[in-house]
Design goal:
Chain A: It is a multi-pass membrane protein. Chain A: This is Multisubunit sodium/proton antiporter MrpF subunit. The structure holds three protein chains of three kinds. Chain A is built from four helices and no strands. Chain A is an all-alpha fold. In chain A, helix 2 runs antiparallel to helix 3. The N and C termini of chain A lie far apart (45 Å). By secondary structure, chain B is mainly alpha-helical. Helices cover 70% and strands 3% of the residues of chain B. In chain B, strands 1-2 form a two-stranded antiparallel ribbon. Chain C is mainly α. Chain C has one domain. Chain C is 84% helix and 0% strand. The longest helix of chain C is centred in the last third of the chain and has 32 residues. Chain C is elongated and about 55 Å long. The chains are: A mainly alpha, B mainly alpha, C mainly alpha. Chains A and B meet through helix 1, helix 2, helix 3 and helix 4 of A and helix 1, helix 2, helix 3, helix 8 and helix 9 of B.
Chain lengths: 88, 316, 101
């Protein structure tokens, strides 16, 4: 069962890394930000799977912390003035 | 086998993100890469079965530092108006520094790998003696009992950092709500409900981390970082504004952690004969009190470092 | 394998499929708004199914409750972030008339 769970974790990590292409390409800052922000969801998923696979219940607390603070970066991002930032 | 795959993906991702964070041609891309790097670091700590570190990294690396960098980026934009100047790096110099760093890293790695193992490494000694302690979490045991001096000094360093920042900083307007305050622009509708839900939950989480820290992963530092993140959130949404000078209560709170810790340590001097030993049987309540004070001080210090101001006051 | 394990693993498998759908949407959809849409909806449903499967595997009701709370908070975070970023992108593109998908 551990191997199967780790397989799912590897699959999610591959998803994450592929999604990084959007961060890399953009084109607008909003694109980069939305990719980064919603990586939080994938990270939470991986943490929950690791909690089960490695038998570490504390990792669920880490996942809880992640979701609580997930909006912080988005709120910081939308403070940016609109026309005045760089476009690629 | 599968864990090799997972770990390699983590390592490769980490390396690529680190490279991107430093070398991306535009600053904003670097910032976002750095934030994702923080997420990856937290995953790595989780994978290494270090939940305390994963907690700290989640609160600070992925939360606080991300918001700080974005606010700093906004301040940069305000200063340079439209476009940021291209970073100009001298290629030969960068190459030289890279080679030197690689050499230093190589030497350290070689030393680490070839040094003969010690009979009883300090970590194992500490683990063996955990039964004498009132706390069950070995990390807390090390932080507050075995190496309490280190933690005490770290608090002093944190306070010094804040004092140093106060000398050079001015209240960072970029750390607050900007565009929302322009006439005609209202705050997005979902912000108020978000805060209504998150504020009590985050306070609860901080309390839980503090309380659980003695027997499960958690502790003063993680709880303080979570509270600081709450302060950052309140600052970003304009619920709290910076003030030039710290009030008496704020100054008291900032010093509280250091003061309580020192007093607790001095108590030990009176009872057991040396600093930072806890009187027998009293160590659990004392550790809890010390951790609570630490949490409050750390939270206020980090929040003030973010806003760049002397104090924070409620109200628009 | 017993019924519970089969159900749990099917949920986890379908949940992972939703994550894949989200990533594909992120990379292939033509504009900020459609990407936001794909990512928020697909990833959160994927997380929900995953949580359900993990709750069954974990077996304890307290763990299941904690996982459910995590998912609820993830929904909250995803909703608000999507709202904020979408509004930002809307203004960036000059308002509703001139925005592209």
């Amino acid at each position: 069962m551990d191997t199967a769970l780790l397989l799912v974790a590897v699959f999610l990590m591959l998803n994450l890394l592929t999604g990084l292409v959007r961060v890399w390409r953009g084109p607008t800052p909003a694109d980069r930000m939305l990719a980064a922000q919603l990586f939080g969801t994938t990270t939470v998923a991986v943490l929950l799977i690791l909690a089960e696979a490695m038998n570490l219940p504390a990792l669920r607390d880490v996942a809880l912390l992640f979701v609580l603070l997930a909006t912080l970066v988005s709120v910081a991002f939308v403070r940016l003035p609109r026309r005045a930032e760089e476009r690629e | 086998m599968m864990d090799w795959w997972l770990d390699s993906l983590l390592v490769l991702g980490l390396l690529w993100l680190a490279w991107q964070a430093v070398s991306a041609p535009r600053v904003f891309r670097s910032v976002v890469m750095f934030i994702v790097f923080g997420l990856f670091m937290s995953l790595c700590w989780a994978r290494l079965a270090a939940p305390d570190l994963a907690l700290a990294e989640a609160a600070i690396g992925a939360g606080l530092t991300g918001a700080l960098l974005l606010s700093a980026y906004r301040a940069l934009l305000a200063r340079h108006e439209q476009r940021l100047p291209e970073p100009r790096v001298s290629r030969p110099l960068a190459g030289l520094i890279a080679v030197l760093c690689a050499l230093a890293f190589g030497v350290l790695a070689w030393v680490l790998l070839t040094v003969p193992g010690v009979e009883t490494p300090a970590g194992r000694e500490a683990l063996a003696r955990m039964d004498d302690l009132a706390v069950d979490n070995p990390v807390t045991g090390v932080l507050l009992v075995f190496r309490a001096y280190d933690t005490l000094m770290e608090l002093g360093v944190l306070l010094l950092a804040l004092l140093g920042a106060r000398v050079v900083a001015e209240p960072l307007r970029a750390s607050g709500p900007g565009p929302w305050q322009r006439p005609g622009l209202r705050e997005p509708v979902l912000v108020a409900p978000l805060l209504a839900l998150l504020v009590p939950l985050i306070v609860l989480m901080a309390g839980y981390l503090l309380w659980a820290g003695t027997s499960a992963p958690g502790g003063a530092f993680q709880a303080g970082a979570v509270l600081a993140a709450l302060g950052v959130l309140l600052r970003l949404t304009g619920r709290v504004r910076p003030t030039m000078n710290s009030s008496f209560h704020e100054r008291a709170l900032l010093v509280l952690g250091l003061a309580v810790f020192t007093v607790a340590g001095a108590l030990g001097f009176g009872f057991e004969g040396y600093m930072l030993s806890y009187p027998a049987g009293w160590s659990y309540p004392i550790i809890l009190v010390v951790e609570s004070a630490l949490m409050l001080s750390i939270a206020l210090t980090l929040a003030l470092l973010f806003s760049g101001s002397g104090g924070l006051r409620g109200g628009e | 394998m017993n019924v519970a394990a089969v159900v749990a693993w099917s949920l986890i498998a379908v949940g992972s499929g939703f994550f894949l759908a989200g990533t594909v949407g992120l990379l292939r959809f033509p504009g900020v708004f459609s990407r936001l849409h794909a990512l928020t909806k697909a990833d959160n449903v994927g997380l929900g199914l995953l949580v359900l499967g993990l709750a069954i595997l974990a077996g304890s009701p307290w763990t299941a409750l904690k996982l459910a709370v995590i998912w609820a908070l993830a929904l909250l975070a995803g909703t608000v972030s999507c709202h904020l970023i979408a509004r930002y992108a809307l203004r960036e593109q000059g308002g509703r008339e001139r925005a592209e998908p």
